[in-house]
């Protein structure tokens, strides 16, 4: 009888395995909520033993925080890339506003709501939420600062303008679970209006631009 050679298993590097675990946890968090990110649930998703997950994340709370952080960082990189493609700062800011709407954005808004609620009780997650909030403020303020340096914006305080924009967007995003279809246009565009006013741009300058790929 001919014996069949068993396929050789490829051993993944620790870095690859950890990234795989975090990616699976982030996907679960987005689809089902951070409460569903458990060592067993992630193990089932990857068809591995729970002990493998606990080897990389002995505390489930660390995996929950990492799952949120990975998803939030991925969204930030999509909306305001650290290395921006060619184009002026005004165009990139308009693109940012164009992307902060729709089902994909609402999905992330629900995750932020989920994380902020759970962070009341989970210190590790609370620290990660604070860290991600700081990253968002810094990235948006940096874009505004670049526009001011290039003469596109009038920005007396880029950090304060960034905070105003994000606070309004967070306020609107708090309705992601109940829907925002009944919001009048003046409310929907409030963050854009604040940005245009603070940056000395004409009304409508940041609205209506298509989201260019990057």
Question: What does this entry look like structurally?
Answer:
With 214 residues, the chain is mainly alpha-helical. Helix content is 64%, strand content 0%. It contains ten helices and no strands. It is elongated and about 60 Å long. Residues 210-214 have low confidence and may be disordered.
Distance between the termini: 57 Å
What's the story with the biggest beta sheet? Answer: none
Order of helices and strands: HHHHHHHHHH
Strands, count? 0
The tally of helices reads 10
Question: What characteristic shape results from the CA principal axes?
Answer: elongated
Radius of gyration: 21 Å
Helix content: 55-70%
In terms of per-residue confidence, which ranges show pLDDT below 50 for 5 or more consecutive residues?
Answer: 210-214
Average pLDDT taken over every residue: 88
**Class by helix and strand content?**
mainly alpha
- Counting copies of identical and different chains, the oligomeric state is single chain
Beta content comes to under 5%
